[in-house]
Write a structure and sequence with these properties.
Blueprint: H1 8-15, E1 22-24, E2 27-33, H2 37-54, E3 59-62, E4 66-71, H3 82-94
Helix pairs in contact: 2-3
Length: 101
């Protein structure tokens, strides 16, 4: 995976493939809504496993029925890279198993 910053156009093009994700404050972000706090907590635990597998970590905010994910690549000057999109794609595959929408 490339650690090079993506252009604004590249980010916009990639976001079209990830409904629910947005580019804001030099990060890609998404909030997942879940049916309970327990489900949200379980999603956070599974996200942590994926992040460790990829050795790439996002900022997570656990809410009552929600999980907010916000990520960029620190080693690329806090820019968005392909690595961030790889993480987002893995999370999109994982979230439905938790009932996230």
């Amino acid at each position: 995976m490339s650690g090079e910053p993506l252009s604004q156009k590249e980010i916009e093009d990639r976001l079209r493939e990830l409904p629910g994700w947005a580019y804001e404050d030099d990060r890609i972000q998404r909030t997942y809504r879940l049916g309970s706090h327990l489900a949200a907590s379980a999603l956070v635990a599974h996200i942590a496993v994926v992040q460790d597998e990829l050795d790439h970590h996002s900022d997570l905010t656990l809410g009552y029925h929600s999980v907010r994910v916000s990520v960029n690549t620190h080693s690329a000057g806090d820019a968005v890279t392909e690595t961030d999109f790889a993480l987002a794609e893995r999370l999109e595959a994982l979230a439905p198993a938790h009932g996230a929408r």
